[in-house]
Each structure stands twice: as C-alpha cells, then as structure tokens.
Amino acid sequence: MYCNQCEQTFRQSACVNSPGTCGKNEDIQSLQETLLYGLKGMAAYAHHARRLGQSDDEVSAFIEEALFATMTNVNFDLDTLLGYCLKCGEMNLRVMEMLDAGHVDTFGKPAPTKVKEGTQAGPGILVTGHDLMDLWQLLHQVEGTSIRVYTHGEMLPAHMYQHFREHPNLAGHYGGAWQEQKKEFAAFPGPVVGTTNCVLIPPESYKGRLFTTNAVAVPGGTRLESGDFQPVIAAALAAEPCAERIVGESTIGFHRSVLLDKAQTIVDAVKAGQISRFFVIGGCDGAEKGRNYFTDYAQATPDDSFILTLGCGKYRIRDHEYGEHLGLPRLMDMGQCNDAYGAIAVAQALADAFDCGVNDLPLTLVISWFEQKAVAVLLTLLHLGVTGITLGPNPPAFVSPNVFKILQERYDLRLTGQDAQEDLRVAVGA
Prior knowledge:
By secondary structure, the chain is of the alpha/beta class. The protein has 14 helices and 16 strands.
C-alpha cells in the first residue's frame, strides 16, 4: 500500500504498510484508487457528452458522492467500496449511452465507409484524440480553403458519421495509434491538433506546430481555449504542404446501429451453425512489450467467426487480412473507446434475441487496458455481470491481490497468458 493523502501518514510522508496510520488497509486503498480512476474515465466521457448537449444530474450527483467516499477517514468497508465501484460502472453506462446519442444526433447516421490513409498534395492539418466536436468546428472554419484535414489515432471513426463523410475538407486518415505520435507527427509537415488524452510531451521537431484544446496542454505547444482555430489554419497555410502519398485504404464504421440493423441475419446465421463465435478484441493500447498478444489472438480466430474491435487497441490487429464471412468483413471496427457502449448494446440485443444472458452467448472479450477510461469501461462490464473477461497484458498495479481474487471469484476475470493461441482454445472450449 502507498497512501499520502493526509497529514497523519507515517512520518508525515506516506503510509507504505498495511494497515496505515488511519487503519485503512491495502484492499480499501485498492478499491478507493479503482473508484477514483473509474470516475476520472467517466468524467472524460461525460465531458465529451456535455459538449454535445448531453448531461444527467444523477451522474453528476454520483460523482460528488463517490469522490466523498474516497476521502480520509470516510469509508473503511470493503463491500461498500466495491459497491461504489460497480455503481460507477452503472453510471458510466449511462454516460456512454449519452455520448453515443450525442454523436449520432450531432454528426448524422453512421455507416460503413472506406477511408483513404496517407496524405494528398496540399496544405494539411492533423487532428488526434477523441473529441469529435473539435474536429467538426475546425472543419467548419477551413471551409472554402484548400486545406485538407486528416484524422489520427482515435479520430479515425469520425469518418463513419454522415456529416463528416460529406465534408469536402475531411481528406482521410494518417498514422496509427497514439504511442507512435512522436515519429508520425514529426513526419507530418503541417500543424497538429491534440483534442483529448493520449497526447505526449512534444520534442523540438514539432512542438511549435502542436496545438491543443480545452483541458489538454503541453510544454511548448499552443493551447486554444475559445474554439477559434484561426491560428491552426494560418500555420497550415504557412507550412510546407503535404506530399501526395496515399498508402492504403481501410473500411471502418460498424457502429452499433449498423450491426443491430443486421441482428436478425446474425441470429439466423448463429442458429444455422454458420457463425462459431464473436470476439471483442480491443481497448486501450500502450507501448510496452507484451501487447503483441492481442495481434496473435486475433490472427488465430477461426474463419467462421467475427472480430469486433474498438479503441486504439484496434491498431494491434487491423493490419492483418482476415477476409470475409457471410458477405461481411470478419474484422469490424466499431469506433473509439468512447463507443464501447455500442459493443454492450449489440451483446444485449443478441442475448434478448436468443432469450439468454450475455454470458450464454458465443462471445469472448479480450480487452487491453491502459488508463482511466479503460477502468470505467471494465467497471461497466462488471456492473452488467459479464464474466470470463480476459484482461491484460498486465494486471492493474492499483488492484491488490485480495481484490483481484474477489473479482476472479465473482466474475471469472482472467489475465492474458503467455500463449494467445492456447488462451483462445480454452476460451472456445476446444
């Protein structure tokens, strides 16, 4: 245990033993940290939703109460704190539902679409992060110019919404996951706009071209607080233009509404034995070793199965050719980590169609976690009673061994192993 949140810590520095001076033990500390990180992730989603006109007073009230529960000498009860964590998952489900509605209401009906990857000749702006409202405002302000706007990282799913697809200045997608940005931003000649988390402190090579919005700020970059992107536009027109370098094309846009439109076809195919299993493989990616596990797992899935992916974890698996099954691509990109609600909605709809629980579906969840948003989504899945989730590549450091044991016993929460193919065989009962 490590806790330094109050004055009565050991030698007024930090309690490193369990229990600490106040009597709190490592399991209580673990659940308090889990709750804090879940709340942080939920707050990020709620911020996006509020910008799209979506809010809920019950969610706001819960955030206040849950934060209060983590203060010094308030709650020492394991079951109560675990209940707060699960309640956080419930509230996060509501927040993700609001965010999904805000995206569709604001940006139009999602549909599968092909996206060019690379750059076209002419001035360009690169937008990274998750906040689609920032991208939309920028596109409005570049209308009538020769500037082409490109998405990066988790902005890729913007292309699936009708209004973005129709905008003449949205040119395509550039680059991969957030952890590649120092190399990719240095190679992009124009300005870069960072809209949310997953921005890194920039090196000299591009910090003068990095702009950030809202809460995002980095040393050497320029923070935009008013929604006025004229400094970015001026920088794009003054910068070296992009070269014509299209490197490929990808199909994205399998939003929950797209899959639910095909729900009866999917149900009939499962009943006919034409679909062996659905795999949800994605989540928050990182740079450390061991994340090739998800690549190996996806490539080992059977040819009569489908892979649903979302979040930046998709970049671990999207470069492989999985082919088609029943006229659909086997790998279906559902969107951002913000779109995790969509995967939940599809699973619940299929369970309703089969008159069974989600845990009875031919469904396997293999989730990479990295930071606070992933914690919020995991708590949502646990709130819904989803069992058998494989999580990795490493266990969260803030989850104590005893708390993790409780989660294993109640939810069959599993860690990724050393052999992805063996884990897959176990998951499908082969």
